[in-house]
Specification:
Distance between the termini: 38 Å
Number of domains: 1
Helix content: over 70%
Number of strands: 0
Number of helices: 1
Amino acid sequence: MSTAKLVKSTPSALLYTRNNVDDSVK
């Protein structure tokens, strides 16, 4: 259960971070 949660959370965290970087660049 913990593994599935990490796998599901990791992509969201990466997308969130990427969006923040894009906002900073803009």
